[in-house]
Specification:
The protein is an alpha/beta fold. About 40% of the residues lie in helices and about 10% in strands. It is an enzyme of class 3 (hydrolase).
């Protein structure tokens, strides 16, 4: 039986459960609809290896980074967003693999941090953008990380700005539930060093977590899987106590092999972590950030821009020095 036919049969059999469940409880599990995770053929690491075959670092970067399944980030640079997400999800679907996509275009993005400032021009522009993002994926299986840092980046925001942001996230979840029924969406919950578990549980809930499949931790950060897992469990304890539900969570392990030295912006001495997989203390361990991509003009990436691939940083991260 073909994968698409199996998917259709599974969805039909599960329809009564879908009607009885909460809005976020999709009938389909995208991890069982596919045979492993998708390796982005056009990642920054892949492009660098292809362009520098004679470089002494290329073989190690190709083996340890470029061929590991990791997320592709989508934002204003992605062109017509529905076309972009549709093409990416479609390419993965043709190979029976599960793609990981990051939506990173919220209005006032990185408002307080500043290194990745930008995003949509207005809340209404974002609503249109994220609706097209979800529509591009449509019924194909996918994992989406929704707006990294958006619930941690509150330090300089007014309550009106926070309310506006939470409304945008709630609206985004509604679009995925409406248009992308085989997508697991994880709202980003920052990391254990940003907000205490009770605070993050409240922010997640107020932004619509009940509609999401789960939440994500440690995106683009370096904190150990063990510390993130303990934090995720603590957030769930708060969710259960305050609101009567819990959610699965995923951890970004792309750069946490040596843990953190307290710095978040291109610190030295970091190491790649456990490759993308199911389980591992969380629902999934995912490479959400590409190892070797700069966090901005800082640390060992001085002179670079956020997202720029730095081969020497990538190479050292393979070996942890």
């Amino acid at each position: 039986m073909s994968r698409r036919l199996r998917t259709l049969m599974a969805a039909l059999c599960a329809l009564p459960l879908a009607f009885a469940a909460a809005p976020s409880a999709h009938a389909a599990d995208p991890t069982t609809m596919t045979s492993g995770f998708y390796v982005d053929p056009d990642s920054s690491a892949k492009r660098w290896v292809a362009a520098n075959p004679g470089d002494g670092r290329a073989a190690a970067i190709n083996a340890s980074i470029a061929n590991t399944p990791m997320a592709r980030w989508f934002g204003s640079w992605s062109g017509t967003i529905g076309t972009a997400t549709g093409a990416y999800a479609g390419a993965a679907d043709q190979r029976d693999k599960l793609p990981i996509l990051v939506a990173y275009n919220i209005y006032n993005r990185d408002y307080c941090g500043g290194h990745s400032a930008g995003g949509a021009a207005s809340p209404s522009a974002y609503a249109n953008w994220i609706a097209q993002f979800a529509g591009g994926i449509a019924g194909r299986p996918a994992v989406v990380i929704l707006e990294p840092d958006s619930l941690g980046d509150y330090g300089c925001m007014t309550q009106a700005q926070i309310d506006e942001r939470e409304a945008m996230l709630t609206g985004a979840l509604a679009e995925f539930n409406r248009q992308a029924p085989n997508t697991w969406v994880y709202m980003d919950a920052g990391n254990p060093r940003w907000a205490d578990a009770a605070t993050m549980a409240r922010r997640l809930h107020e932004a619509g977590l009940r509609q999401a499949h789960g939440f994500s931790l440690n995106v683009s950060n370096y904190i150990t899987t063990a510390e993130n897992t303990a934090y995720g469990n603590a957030v769930n304890n708060e969710l259960a106590a305050r609101y009567g539900y819990t959610k699965p969570f995923v951890v970004d392990t792309s750069r946490n092999g040596n843990g953190t030295n307290g710095q978040w912006c291109n610190p030295s001495g970091r190491r790649i972590g456990t490759p993308t997989q199911k389980g591992g203390g969380a629902e999934m361990l995912l490479w959400i950030k590409t190892p070797g991509e700069s966090d901005g003009n800082c640390g060992v990436g001085t002179g670079s821009t956020a997202g720029q691939f730095l081969p020497e940083v990538a190479y050292k991260m393979i070996y942890g020095y």
